[in-house]
Inverse folding.
């Protein structure tokens, strides 16, 4: 998308971070024999699966239009992004809540806690690198807007998902490290259970917000409001156009469909009018390369001669 961040780069950074964390958890599970650490290894591998689903969605979204799908497959990325949000909610959030409640009911003292601390510190470093790469791409897209404004207005579903997932993962690892340290310092294993519950609640909240945003794109949203204002200003500034009556946009993955109704400045003849419309549409698509389909309807007046 023009003016957007590189979603693919952010996804590969997240995939690399999650895979490295999964390997570190697996090594810790092997040497400590901890079933909890083994479960966390599976959890991190599931996160890797989420990134692979997003890459699959981005690949499917690039398929060309067909008679059955005349507007292309761009919205496929919304489906896979929504599925990842559900995975984040269930496999991430609900699993962590279940594990935390189980620890709360059956507290166990931490064994070989230094392994957990080492894995968590490494995980925080890896996730921080992934988050930094994601924010670099987000900053390219958000301009002067706040992160919250960008999150609510962005039409890059995969980047929204990666941002939410990275944020939840980084904060979750910090929560886990604090919980483990408090458990060791106080000797009370309930801190570990409370930390796990807090992580679960965090993942559920982030997953719900991400799902809400992706659902709106899946149903059918206009382009980014700032981008739409740029489109309207461009059309209004054209000398061929007297007044823009309506501008309707539809985001289809990384491509856009636009319908314009405008009153033309010069209405000498239908042939001349057609030439002006074609000239405006060519300039419009050159200025906004993400526009794949454009429909321009002039406001015809009775005085127009043939």
């Amino acid at each position: 998308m023009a003016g957007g961040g590189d979603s693919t780069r952010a996804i590969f950074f997240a995939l690399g971070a999650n895979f490295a964390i999964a390997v570190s958890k697996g090594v810790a599970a092997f040497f400590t024999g901890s079933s909890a650490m083994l479960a966390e290894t599976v959890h991190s591998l599931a996160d890797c699966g989420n990134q692979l689903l997003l890459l699959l969605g981005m690949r499917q979204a690039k398929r060309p239009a067909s008679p059955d799908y005349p507007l292309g497959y761009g919205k496929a990325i919304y489906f896979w992004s929504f599925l990842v949000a559900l995975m984040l909610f269930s496999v991430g959030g609900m699993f962590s809540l279940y594990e935390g409640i189980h620890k709360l009911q059956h507290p166990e003292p931490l064994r070989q806690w230094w392994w957990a601390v080492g894995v968590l510190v490494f995980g925080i470093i890896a996730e921080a690198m992934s988050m930094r790469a994601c924010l670099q791409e987000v900053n390219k897209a958000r301009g002067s807007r706040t992160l919250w404004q960008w999150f609510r207005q962005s039409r890059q579903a995969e980047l929204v998902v990666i941002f939410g997932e990275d944020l939840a993962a980084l904060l979750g690892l910090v929560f886990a490290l604090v919980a483990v340290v408090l458990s060791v310092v106080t000797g009370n294993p309930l801190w570990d259970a409370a930390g796990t519950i807090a992580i679960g609640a965090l993942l559920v909240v982030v997953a719900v917000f991400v799902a809400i945003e992706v659902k709106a794109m899946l149903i059918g949203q206009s382009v980014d409001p700032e981008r739409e204002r740029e489109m309207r200003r461009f059309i209004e500034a054209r000398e061929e156009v007297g007044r823009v009556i309506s501008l309707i946009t539809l985001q289809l993955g990384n491509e856009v469909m636009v319908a314009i109704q405008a009153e033309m400045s010069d209405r000498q003849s239908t042939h001349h009018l057609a030439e002006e419309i074609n000239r405006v549409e060519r300039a419009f698509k050159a200025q906004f390369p993400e526009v794949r389909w454009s429909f321009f309807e002039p406001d015809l007046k009775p005085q127009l001669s043939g």
Notes: The mean pLDDT is 87. The CA atoms of residues 124 and 174 lie 7 Å apart. Strands lie at 241-252, 255-264, 291-298.
